[in-house]
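Hi R.,

Here's the chain you asked about this morning:
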Amino acid sequence: MTHDTTEQQILADATNDSAMNRRGALGFLGKLGLGAAAMGLAGTAAAIPAKNIDGDVLNFALNLEYLEAAFYLAAVGRIKELRRIGGGADIILPASLDQDRGMQFKDANVQALARDIAEDELSHVKFLYGALGKGAAPRPVIDLNGAFRAAGQAASGGKIDGFNPFANDLFFLHGAFIFEDVGVTAYNGAATLITNPAYLQAAAGILAVEAYHGGAIRSMLFQQRQVSAAAGLYVGQVVQAISALRGKVGGMKDQGLTDANGMAVFAPADRNGVAYPRTTREVLNIVYLAPNASKGGFYPNGLNGTIK
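And here is the predicted structure, written out as tokens:
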């Protein structure tokens, strides 16, 4: 992957910084339940140092996990659990959503998926936040109201107005589709930046779970690809439009539910069957809903941390 200017500068800073030391590495291994006990240092190792490339990359991941967790926890009526982590920044939700009950699912399978992913995403936040310790980026302002409306309009060419992913099961799946593939490509792209093998293994483990989520969401949408979605569009058309929009601002690394030959796509990948990687700038273009922006979209005030 080609590093953008921000990544090059961060990497240079980290190379000149001695904070990435044995004690910090053992701290992260301890969080994984590895290493520290075997070395007789359980309970004494420090968390990840705040100033190093690995900490910066994991904080970037934490910002994305805050967003995913907010989406799924809001859907299942557990958003209060996230509000207790990372500070008091606002999480903007549609006024129609009951924050204590969540949305009203009609399909038990979609509800089960939402609950499972919500638990995973909350665990990712707790894991990264705890491992980063005092260096953890606070939770930024997250917009799950206006940003979705804007994304819906952009993806549909203005045909869908007031898109609310919590309105029904199908819209929820569309909202989930916006996030999941981005998470996979973000973690894959970050792999070239992480220097410590223990941190890389942890990130790879999270990537695998995100890929499972993405495949499950795609499977459910594929089954309904010919169902009418909104504004005269079929589900497959809406998903393809979302994919095209992500591809336009995110490095043309995307696929809808089918390929050019009409074959199903459950795991978007290049010609070698390898998941696409995205640079941090490409990821930011998607979540900010605009190329080269420093804030906006799902993060009205931008991400917190060095990579933002």
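One quick note: Residues 197-223 form the longest helix (27 residues).

Cheers,
M.
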